[in-house]
From TrEMBL:
Broad class of where this protein is predominantly found: cytoplasm
Name this polypeptide is given: Glutamine--fructose-6-phosphate aminotransferase [isomerizing]
Active site residues according to the UniProt entry: K359 (for fru-6p isomerization activity)
E.C. no: 2.6.1.16
GO cellular component: a single term: cytosol
Residues of the whole record sequence present: 249 to 612 of 612
Keywords: Aminotransferase, Cytoplasm, Glutamine amidotransferase, Repeat, Transferase
One Gene Ontology term from the biological process aspect of the record: UDP-N-acetylglucosamine metabolic process
Length: 364
């Protein structure tokens, strides 16, 4: 059932190009996004005053990336919240808001409770869900099904990637309906989305170099992932992957926050991974990397082909193909998944079933 792969996780990493393409194709008809099955009308889209994205774990990290994309393209204010916080903080919600609940399993207890909280307050709910007929899918007013197929590994990979795609499609469609983008921009973004599967494949094809690098990190005490904007969201997911399966402590930090405390943890040889996919923030994050280096850090850069001057700063560099910066998370996450995976393999750990964790967290 692992189809020749050593673990479900690496099998599922390899399934990402197909999962992404399937999710795209499920709503793209003749080059246009069709949300008929999701059930949101143009009028409903025009009336959304505010978006609340609520989720746990990696799905929350999708929400963080989606916040930047939705606000930037559709110009709708977005809040992203952890379901376990949202459900108990008596949130003040706007009746014309839209609550988007992201969940692979559709059974996460806190996410389900957050959905019920939003519904009880009269707010429309939209689930981005992978498991058909799951509780969140049944209870949400609208459902956008991701087509990742069954995900077995506790560490999510392909479901995460399809959740990102669903959120881009919503953002582009909302932007179009609300006349925030031109037809040309719309067509360009859809064409770009369709190149993502082959770009993801290209990153997977280069996995040996990352395997080599990740295997060298098995004795690391701490790893820091830093970035700004969408790159901060990517850092969060990279850090969780590393912790969850390799048991190496890591932190994701908004690069500009480092000097407000955390930089004191940087010692000789501490690995700092700078995520640099956003052109407007590139120089800013590079200077934070330089600050870490001058305190002894060992630097890895994760950036786009073409940004070769990163080699003046970073000790090890991984390049990803160019794409629209709104969609960079879909590419940048893949090397980070591979690093977590290979670090876990090198430590001889139970990759697919890490200690203390369950695939679906049905108790709070
Ligand atoms: O099924 P869900 O998407 O609601 O699960 C949410 C989290 O429990 C999940 O993403 C978790 O963080 C993953 N194990 C991370 O790889």
């Amino acid at each position: 059932e692992k189809a020749g792969f050593e673990h479900f996780m690496i099998k599922e990493i390899h399934e990402q190009p197909k999962a992404v393409a399937d999710t795209l194709n499920s709503v793209l008809h003749d080059g246009m996004i069709d949300l008929n099955d999701v059930g949101l009308s143009e009028e409903e889209i025009r009336n959304i005053s505010q978006i609340y994205i609520v989720a746990c774990g990696s799905a929350y990290h999708v929400g963080m990336a989606a916040q930047y994309v939705l606000e930037d393209l559709a110009r709708i204010p977005v809040r992203v919240e952890l379901a376990s916080e949202f459900r108990y903080r008596k949130p003040l919600l706007d009746k014309n808001g839209l609550a988007i609940i992201i969940s692979q399993s559709g059974e996460t207890a806190d996410s389900l409770a957050a959905l019920r909280e939003a519904k009880a307050k009269g707010v429309r709910t939209l689930g981005i869900v992978n498991v058909i007929g799951s509780s969140i899918a049944r209870e949400a007013d609208n459902v956008f099904y991701t087509l990742a197929g069954p995900e077995i590994s506790v560490a999510t990979t392909k479901a995460y990637s399809t959740q990102l795609i669903a959120s881009y499609l919503l953002a582009i469609q909302f932007a179009k309906v609300r006349e925030e983008i031109t037809q040309e921009q719309y067509d360009g973004m859809i064409a770009e989305l369709q190149t993502l599967p082959e770009k993801i494949q290209k990153i997977i094809d280069d996995k040996e170099r990352l395997q080599w690098f990740a295997s060298k990190q098995v004795n690391a005490k701490d790893i820091f992932f830093i970035g700004r904007g969408i790159d901060y969201a990517i850092s969060m997911e990279g850090s969780l992957k590393m912790k969850e399966i390799s048991y190496i402590h890591s932190e994701a930090y908004a690069a500009g926050e480092l000097k407000h405390g955390t930089i004191s943890l940087i010692e000789d040889g501490t690995l700092v991974i700078g995520c640099l996919t956003q052109p407007n923030l590139y120089e800013k994050t590079v200077s934070n990397m330089v600050e870490c280096k001058s305190r002894g850090a060992y630097l890895m850069g994760l950036t786009t082909y073409g940004n070769y001057n990163i080699e003046d700063t970073a000790d090890f560099v991984t390049y990803i193909p160019k794409t629209d910066p709104h969609f960079a998370t879909s590419l940048a996450v893949v090397p980070l998944q591979l690093m977590g995976y290979y670090a876990s393999v090198a430590k001889g750990l139970d990759v697919d079933k890490p200690r203390n964790l369950a695939k679906s967290v049905t108790v709070e």
